[in-house]
Amino acid sequence: MRIGIGxxxxxxxxxxxxxxxGLHIPNDKGLKGHSDGDGLLHAITDALLGAAGMGDxxxxxxxxxxxxxDADSAVLLKAAFEQVKRRxxxxxxxxxxxxxxxxxxxxYKSQMEARIAGLLEIETRRVNVKAKTNEGLDAVGRKxxxxxxxxxxxxxx
Length: 157
Ligand code: MG
Description:
The model has no long low-confidence stretch (mean pLDDT 96). The longest helix is centred in the middle third of the chain and has 14 residues, at 73-86. The chain has one domain (2-156): CATH 3.30.1330.50. By secondary structure, it is of the alpha+beta class. It is globular. It has a five-stranded mixed β-sheet. A two-stranded antiparallel ribbon has the order 2-3. The termini are close together. It has five helices and seven strands.
């Protein structure tokens, strides 16, 4: 077994599409980023790479590379997981936190779990998404940013 941790934070920007956990969530602001800004998929990608001892998302998909401009983070996650799989790993489980003051994400948690499980070709029961606020504190609490965390447990098959 090997464990990996991932963290990300993105600024919220008016008029951008909000992508989180591979879902489009209706909101007046979206996450700024070189890619589509899906911080949850970025945190999971980092946790997967970390568990496999394969560096981080920036090593694999540099944000200076024009190929990844507005990239679909789901495609990046799948590409990272293909490499992790090639090293002989399977996913035991993934647990995540989304820390967002707004919008309310509770209604989307199970859809995100299903979407993430689908991208990684695992059962939905292996993915857990939790949504928290920051109790009004800091940039996240002021609705200026959304932070994400993920842990992934891999088993060598
Ligand atoms: Mg990111």
